[in-house]
């Protein structure tokens, strides 16, 4: 029976790991069958001086002695269980992973914003009374460095002069406004702005490919697509900032949507609302306030900005233009679930897929005191649905 001291040590070591880690296992103690392996005999016997023998006789004698070894000889025994690796060993160090885990479909949690217990928090964000008007003006195929392909859609709207984007994975998700016929345009005009089906190739002259009819909506398996509403973050996506996990979330969303097992496609709505809507200049001022001791919410308030000035009406309108009514949303933010559904629930979020930091899951990512303080503030002050117990110590 283990002593209280050993039990305490095991519990203290386990409590420092995220909740989804398995406790550390101890090597199996050697049994009686393992004595010859755990206590080998390295003694050297002293024999009389060897007599001269015929070389051919010596070789034949050696061969016969090896072939006559009993099967219980240690050389022929498999190693004891304590030396064998298990079929699966959970990662015990952040930054390591089992490759097959990266190919698994993300697990979603059913949500329903129409009821208080629907898993969407208890806050009701302010929504636009009417959705903005959006139009996709161009689309292009983008081959990526990972080997996956996506279609980049550029949108204009009647609310601002910014170019918001939709990154679409899957061939059956299409823009209604892009495919609409425009007065006076030629077939070449449609090819150039991306209003075609199938693939482009040298010499193509028509926008319709009979083999790839424009269906719109969901992919073949009928499951709602994965959707990520992502606000622009120049610091996290371009200059490698460790103050937030925005760049990691964008990369992880694209990876999940491009998995071969994901047959429902995916959409990343990329909104140009830097710094939770306050702009890059004000965001950099907020960073200086954070270095002076404020957290990410306090810094915005000190600059006379809301803690979160973002709006998601454009995202709702863009998703509707892409033919979506039901989605699986990649987010930790309960406000985003209600906001993206629109003022009249024009879109319904069926599932929420958590965006857990990769370092918390032992699958790479990065660790920094700034990003951990940022996540802590989002959980405590903004209601983000992450488990603080999973935060590595």
Automatic annotation (TrEMBL):
UniProt entry keywords in alphabetical sequence: GTP-binding, Hydrolase, Nucleotide-binding, Riboflavin biosynthesis
Chain residue ranges for the region called Disordered: 1-111, 203-222
Residues covered by the GTP cyclohydrolase II domain: 137-349
Biased segments, Pro residues type: 71-81
Catalyses which reaction(s): GTP + 4 H2O = 2,5-diamino-6-hydroxy-4-(5-phosphoribosylamino)-pyrimidine + formate + 2 phosphate + 3 H(+)
InterPro entries tied to this protein: GTP_cyclohydro_II, RibA, RibA-like_sf
GO biological process terms on file: riboflavin biosynthetic process
GO MF terms, alphabetically ordered: GTP binding; GTP cyclohydrolase II activity
Pathway: Cofactor biosynthesis; riboflavin biosynthesis
Residue stretches of biased makeup (Low complexity): 1-16, 56-70, 94-103
Record keyword RNA-binding present: no
EC number, as in UniProt: 3.5.4.25
CDD domains named among the record's database cross-references: GTP_cyclohydro2
Keyword Hydrolase: yes
NCBIfam families for this protein: PRK00393.1 (NF001591), ribA (TIGR00505)
Family: Belongs to the GTP cyclohydrolase II family.
Protein name as it appears in the record: GTP cyclohydrolase II
Organism whose genome encodes this protein: Podospora fimiseda
